[in-house]
Amino acid sequence: MQVTDPVCGKTIDLGVAEPTEYLGWAYFFCSDACRSAFLTAPDRYAPSHRPPMSRDHVSGPPRSAQ
């Protein structure tokens, strides 16, 4: 399965990407530089249309698919 880095738009394999949680959603990054950019200004990169979710909800595949 592949995911998209929200900072640079690069498509990366889920097994290689490290997740970072923000407001209950998991975001995946191709590099430490993209992760740092996201953490500096997460509202710039996180979609604003997502509904509030419980803390135990993350985006991406279900745990059974990982």
TrEMBL record:
InterPro entries: Ferritin-like_SF, RNR-like, YHS_dom
GO MF term list: oxidoreductase activity
Domain (YHS): residue spans on this chain: 3-47
Origin superkingdom: Bacteria
Stretches the record annotates as Disordered: 45-66
Signal peptide residues on this chain, from the entry's feature table: none
Protein name, entry field: YHS domain-containing protein
Native organism: Propylenella binzhouense
